[in-house]
Amino acid sequence: MKSVEISFLVICGIFVTSINAHLKDNNGYFKNRPRDCTDIDIKQKSGVYKIYPEGSADGFNVYCDMMTESVNGGWTVFQRRMNGKIDFYRDWKEYKEGFGSLRSEFWLGNDRLHMLTAQGKYELMITMEDFSNQNRYAKYDNVKVGNEKSKYLLTFGTYRGNAGNSLSGHHHDKKFSTKDQDNDVSSDNCATKYKGGWWYGACHGANLNGLYLSATQLHRESKGCSSKKMFKSHMSFLKTKCNSFWICNDRLHMLTAQGKYELMITMENFSNQNRYAKYDNVKVGNEKSKYLLTLGTYRGNAGNSLSGHHDKKFSTKDQDNDVASRNCATKYKGGWWYSDCHGADLNGLYLSGKHSSFADGINWHAWRGYHYSLKRSAVMIRRLN
Ligand SMILES: *[C@@H]1O[C@H](CO)[C@@H](O)[C@H](O)[C@H]1NC(C)=O
User: Fold this and answer.
1) Burial level of 69, CB count in 10 A (0-12/13-18/19+)?
2) Same CATH fold assignment for domains 37-199 and 249-383
3) Which ligand 1 atom lies nearest to the CA of residue 367?
4) Does the record bear Signal in its keywords (predicted)?
5) Between the chain's N and C termini, which has fewer beta carbons within 10 Å?
6) Going by CA atoms, what residue is nearest to atom 4 of ligand 1?
7) End-to-end alpha-carbon separation of the chain, Å?
8) How much distance in Å is there from the Cα of 120 to the middle of ligand 1?
9) How far is the CA of 226 from the centre of ligand 1 (A)?
């Protein structure tokens, strides 16, 4: 089987650093008024520091990463996702000015990004983590973000890293788009389609099935991923935040109709314990059947919480196809093949561990019960013939 590691990558942090680094002047001016995190003494801890880029009289606070492996610190973090608390589906003005909280999730702001990268030669680093805590990075030299007039045009140079170069083809020399300003080169607004703000090129969602055919990931929840954004039809791998997604049910049907598929679910709790459950012979029916789920035999170490969902229809808040008297989708805040109602609900709310509410988290009953919402889960299929 071909490795499909690529489908599990999420981008969890984006950094810039100046490479004409540590050019502190003799008077210690930059020490007192650092232009960016690179001017901060390398021995300092990571944290929030005030910087004074050229053109910013009063300075502003940023989060400096002083110890990310292999990069020797001095990185100005301009985006971070870690707990799903901040909504990134925002408008032009909010991306311009920045939003969120520097100690958790945020976007630093496009004007600031422009101001920073206009000061000198900068490199860009993107760090990613896959679902088994493997880390990868991608670096690009010579990154610049233009001013608002240029629509924050992004340009960058050569790739280095171990994550693969996914940025050059689609995002170099691209303008920034948000839901209220479509500057991409696609006929749709990619920002609306993919629910973010970014230097979108053309959207490549149409290639998704091609990319993931041998073990398609249907869904993931991760630390830093909000399940409120569930029910999106699909997403491009290039979507740049720490995202959760749901591949659309029609595609799921289309895929599983092609042959014999197995289903694998991987999950992790907040002490990084991992479990999995596999089911052979998975099929999802067409819309007419209400995407009827059928499953074969269970194997795994997570416990069998899904067999109760065999031969069940899919329900959402606006379509009650379950066998309960009430709508399980409304009750347990997800979209799923609910029965009466569930043994596992991986599309429930991202409740981050123990929760007092009943069964409305990302629950896998056989492992952690109805009052524990998993840190991560991923659902994937693999063709067997
Ligand atoms: C994670 O799962 C293991 C094994 O079931 C359990 O011992 C541990 O307490 C769990 N950790 C958390 C934080 O729930």
Assistant:
1) exposed
2) yes
3) 5
4) yes
5) C
6) 273
7) 11
8) 48
9) 22
Give the whole-angstrom CA distance, residue 96 versus residue 225. 23
The first and second tokens of residue 365, run together, are 């009953």
Q: Which CATH architecture has domain 249-383?
A: Alpha-Beta Complex (3.90)
Q: What is the DSSP letter of 242?
A: S
Residue with tokens 């709310």: 349
Supply the residue whose CA is at minimum distance from atom 2 of ligand 1. Answer: 273
Containing 190, the helix (H) or strand (E) segment is: helix 190-194
Name beta bridge partners: 373: 353
* pLDDT tens digits along 44-72: 788 888 888 877 778 888 888 776 544 45
Q: How confident is the model at residue 3 (pLDDT cuts 50, 70, 90)?
A: very low
Tell me the best of 368, 370, 372 to mutate to test the pocket of ligand 1, counting ligand atoms within 8 Å of each CB and taking the most. 368
Q: How is residue 331 written in tokens?
A: 């009750």
269 alpha carbon to ligand 1 midpoint, in Å? 6
- The closest residue, in CA terms, to atom 8 on ligand 1 is 271
Q: Is the CB of 270 under 6 A from ligand 1?
A: yes
195: Cβ contacts below 8 Å, ≥ 6 apart: 88, 89, 179, 229, 232
Q: What average pLDDT does the segment 225-232 reach? A: 28
Question: Using DSSP, how many helices (H) and how many strands (E) does the chain show?
Answer: 9, 23
Task: State which fold the 37-199 domain adopts.
Answer: Gamma Fibrinogen; Chain A, domain 1 (3.90.215)
Q: Which two three-digit tokens encode residue 267? A: 């999950």
Domain ranges of the chain: 37-199, 249-383
* Residue 56: both structure tokens together: 């910013």
CB of 187 within 6 A of ligand 1: the answer is no
- Tell me the C-alpha distance between 110 and 175, whole Å: 11
Q: How far is the CA of 335 from the centre of ligand 1 (A)?
A: 26
The residue ranking higher by pLDDT, 209 or 370, is 370
